[in-house]
Structure formats: structure tokens, C-alpha cells
Amino acid sequence: MRRLAVFLPLALLALAQVAVFPGWVRLVPPVVPDTTAYLTVENRGKVPLRLVGAETPVARRISLHRDYREDRGGQVVLGMRPLPYVEIPPKTRVAFRPGGYHLMLEGLKAPLKAGEKVELTLRFQDGTQIRVSLPVEMR
Questions:
Q1: What are the DSSP calls for the chain, one per residue?
Q2: Contact at 8 Å (CB) between 27 and 138?
Q3: How buried is residue 130: exposed, middle or buried, by Cβ count under 10 Å (0-12/13-18/19+)?
Q4: Whole-number pLDDT of residue 112
Q5: Among 66, 74, 76, 126, whose Cα sits 20 to 30 Å from the Cα of 45?
Q6: Residues 106-123: what's their mean pLDDT?
Q7: Banded model confidence at residue 78, pLDDT cuts 50, 70, 90
């Protein structure tokens, strides 16, 4: 797995080292107003981290979500729930992938094209912000 270079403030390096592994943004038809982004965040530090949000210039907002599957009396229900944050325990990786955690890019400002890059800024509870660039792909 390839790693992205991330520049972090010295205070964060002392408390919780973060690695962000590349992911992708789902290509959707031009008439679909929302899409999803996936990546992996690794907490190499000794204290938990909380991812509390993200921003991008290509969408009006980004929210954190987790897909779920429930059995309701023999009927399987699939859905997703918004989350206020995603906690990354020390010495752990949290993968944002189809069927689990994901970043929901809501209100795309223009249709995305396969191969273009989407810039995201991840925001953590301690004020740290990490920029990543993810390719748009059809998967």
C-alpha cells in the first residue's frame, strides 16, 4: 500500500503520529448529487485520535458515515448512519471502505470525471488538519 506524504505540526508528532493511506472517490453519473470517498487513517501514537470532519472544494459538505446491515425479523435492512466522529485508537488503522466507514461528499458542485483528483482536508478534534488528494475512480 502506498503512503501519502503528510506534513504535521510538531505538537502532533509528539502526541499522535498519523499516516493516511491513499484511497479513492467513487465516480457517479452526472445527475447524482452525492458520492463517497475512501481511505485509511493510521494512528501511530499513544493516544486516541478523533476524526471529526472534512472539507473539499468539490462539494458543499462532507459528513462521516458508517454503513450498517440489520436483521429485522427475517428481513435484512441495509443503510447508513451519520457519525459525529470516528475514533482511531492508538496503534490502529481505521479503513474507510465500501460497506463500512466512508466520507459522504454531499452536494457536488460539478460532475466528477474519472481520473481527476479530489482534494480533501481531514479535520481532527485536536485541531490538526491533513490534506489528501484522491483519484476519482469507477469501482
A1: ---------HHHHHH--EEEEEEEEE---TT---EEEEEEEEE-SSS-EEEEEEE-TTEEEEEEEEEEEEEETTEEEEEEEEES-EEE-TTEEEEE-TTSEEEEEEEESS---TT-EEEEEEEETTS-EEEEEEEEE--
A2: yes
A3: buried
A4: 98
A5: 66
A6: 97
A7: confident
C-alpha cell at 57: 472544494
Separation of alpha carbons 71 and 138, rounded Å:
30
Please say whether the beta carbons of 65 and 101 come within 8 A.
yes
Amino acid in the structure at residue 34 = D
Query: Taking the model in full, what pTM does it have?
Result: 0.84
| pLDDT, tens digit, 9 for 90 and up, residues 23-59 | 999 999 999 999 999 999 999 999 999 999 999 999 9
